Design the sequence.
């Protein structure tokens, strides 16, 4: 097994809000992408809720030594730790926009020849099969969230629920606050934010390792604006995570596109 990993902060950030775990003891590998907070909060070390959320998950899976624990159980245990940390800092958890939250893409190579995976949000798990087929094992639930949020508001208004006019949501901050309120709801997106509802929305499954050549886990900072997720996989597979990340960052700079933290793990099964 050959493992390649990469993590870099976006040019405008002093520290990455992504984190990465490479736990060879129990064969657990994953990437986490903290959601940039909408409310100002810094701990005693100057770290915000996005950094803290992704690193709480990283630390949990890094310390994991029980190989019989499922990834779903692990996510729920880390999610409880996240809630406890917010309680410690007296974060008002009734308001969704206050919550520290993180997306996740994790795999575990089991002893029985299976590969388990679990995912939240817009982190992705992809696989290349022995026959050359490339397949996303997970779905990006953050994609089109603003469109779905607008449709949900329209539906609510039809049912007589009082919601501000759409003009109000043209303010980007108000749009983001509303989007956060749809975390782990049917119309919304999935994310670990300390709430128990996350259990119902974790995408998870298993594949046979005998059929797999390569596994890739990435945060959304590695998505290319011009390529499908499968094309992105091929590029990373061809030139490697580091070169791909540097080239993407240069492309974003040339085209005045927002650059995000970039994190990935590529595992080639020998």
Sequence:
């Amino acid at each position: 097994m050959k493992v390649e990993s990469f993590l870099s902060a976006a040019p405008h950030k002093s520290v990455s809000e992504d984190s990465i775990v490479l736990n060879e003891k129990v064969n657990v590998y994953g990437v986490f992408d903290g959601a940039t907070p909408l409310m100002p909060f810094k701990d005693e070390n100057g770290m915000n809720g996005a950094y803290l959320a992704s690193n709480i998950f990283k630390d949990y899976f890094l310390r994991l030594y029980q190989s019989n624990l499922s990834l779903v159980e692990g996510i729920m245990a880390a999610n409880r730790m996240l809630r406890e940390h917010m309680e410690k800092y007296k974060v008002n958890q009734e308001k969704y926009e206050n919550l520290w939250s993180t997306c996740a893409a994790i795999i575990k190579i089991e002893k029985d020849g299976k590969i388990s995976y679990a995912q939240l949000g817009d982190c992705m798990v992809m696989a290349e099969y022995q026959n050359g087929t490339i397949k996303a094992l997970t779905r990006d639930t953050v994609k089109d969230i603003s469109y779905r949020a607008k449709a949900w508001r329209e539906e609510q208004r039809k049912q007589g629920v009082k919601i501000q006019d759409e003009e109000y949501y043209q303010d980007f901050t108000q749009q983001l606050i509303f989007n956060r309120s749809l975390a782990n709801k049917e119309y919304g997106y999935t994310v670990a934010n300390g709430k128990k509802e996350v259990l119902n929305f974790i995408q998870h499954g298993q594949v046979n390792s005998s059929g797999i050549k390569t596994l890739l886990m990435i945060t959304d900072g590695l998505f290319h604006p011009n390529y499908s997720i499968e094309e992105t996989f091929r590029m990373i597979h061809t030139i490697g995570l580091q070169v791909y990340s540097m080239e993407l960052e240069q492309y974003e700079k040339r085209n005045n596109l927002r650059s995000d933290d970039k994190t990935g793990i590529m595992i080639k099964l020998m």
